[in-house]
Amino acid sequence: AVKAKPQVIFVLGGPGSGKGTQQCAKMVEELGLLHLSAGDLLRAHMKSGTPDGNMVAEMIKQGQIVPSRVTISLLEEAMLKGGKQQVLIDGFPRNEENRSAFESQTGIEPEFVLFFDCPEAVMEQRLLSRQAGRTDDNIETIRKRFKVFVDSSMPIINFYEQKGKVRKINADRSPDEVYADVQPLVRGLQA
Ligand code: UP5
Ligand code: MG
Q: Which Gene3D superfamilies did the record assign (predicted)?
């Protein structure tokens, strides 16, 4: 079980910037942190068939941000269950409502924010060639997701930038090159 509050790293960046699969998986494998993808938790929840689950399915299909009430309870449950002292939270918080609710409900402030910076054209190409069967990987929803990222999520990154907490990574490189920059930052937290 979790004794003290876990140390949290937020992993943020546009849709397709490479937050999930490649980078977080490597950190889990090599450094043993718990990885929670807010999007993965929401996609699992939408299969529950509950009214909330159906709302989540519709919002994801439209590229909209789910209310923090839903996302935070999924994250809290998964953090408790995971029982790790160091947690990567990928794809959250996405707007000011997410950010302030997480901080007030959990009392947790991130150690730092990994920001995967990537040009839209590159992200678009990656998402269009991904074969994960996601309901939001079509060009229409991808464009909506980009707009939501710029309008609602970039202000969160700017908020943490002003607090000196953003570690910006050039994500428009090979996965190994990206990881070479990520690894020492995360290792530094563990030292
Ligand atoms: N790829 C990755 N890195 C590469 C590299 N360096 N070079 C070449 N290819 C690379 O990667 C995407 C694809 O690119 C993969 O095929 C990968 O192999 C390749 P991935 O690691 O999956 O990128 P990621 O940044 O995780 O992209 P993802 O599509 O998951 O980002 P989103 O932020 O859009 O998705 P998420 O799952 O976080 O959210 C989906 C939706 O859920 C949101 O739009 C929203 O509706 C909802 N949501 C909320 O409402 N609230 C939340 O808190 C979270 C999600
Ligand atoms: Mg992802």
A: P-loop containing nucleotide triphosphate hydrolases
